[in-house]
Amino acid sequence: MRNQKVGSVMTTEVVRAEYGTPFKAVAGLLSEHRVSGLPVVDDDQHVIGVVSETDPMLHQAATPLAYEPPPRFRLARLTPRARRQAARARARTAGRLMTAPAVSVHAEDTVVEAARTMVEHRVNRLPVLDEDDRLVGIVTRHDLLQTFLRPDAEIREEVIREVLQRGLWLVNGSVDVTVSEGVVTLEGQLERKSETEIAVAMTRRTDGVVDVVDRLTHRFDDSEFRDDTRVPGGVADDWLRRL
């Protein structure tokens, strides 16, 4: 499978800050470039943290209003989270304002892996690193969504070539493949049940696929013999071991 890599969809011109970048300069970068966050790097361009657009707002939120009464002592202010927020509210540089460590991905990671990382950590953008863990780009949710804009015809060709022919060694026409709005329908009869499972699993992991409609049937149910049964050659051996 040739899943699209993060490096092919990322933005290479990255707005960044250094540890000592002043607070006002950070706010200026976020506003001028209209970005929701930016990575903070050291002298070797290693990402040491991330500043989001909400971080400078902590400073404003912590500033008392003229008519506001003096704050009373609260036990909640003694919690680690409260102390961290209080320290960031007093921050004067990007290094003090940032969240660390930074959540990042590598340029060779797949778009699917990057999407999972975004969802898991609830972030909208990720710094992209090279093999030496240096900053080379930034990828946003908008960038990852471009994968789902692949034409249906292109998706169909890849499913036939990579899944059916290379993965399962099936002759052309063994399975009918149709794609509509990113939804792939697989219809036909294969020799073994394990082959149908592989076909569906591999198709689902193809870039741009929204869903898979499984209309495949099989002649032989090999599920109870799976430890000893392998589809010969190709990448199917590995897929069988994962099922």
TrEMBL record:
Gene3D superfamilies registered for this protein in UniProt: 3.30.1340.30, CBS-domain
UniProt cross-references to SUPFAM superfamilies, sorted A to Z: CBS-domain pair
A Pfam short name: CBS
Residue ranges annotated for the CBS domain, each copy included: 10-68, 98-154
Cited PROSITE patterns: BON (PS50914), CBS (PS51371)
Keyword list, A-Z: CBS domain
Name of the featured protein: CBS domain-containing protein
Classification lineage: Bacteria, Bacillati, Actinomycetota, Actinomycetes, Kitasatosporales
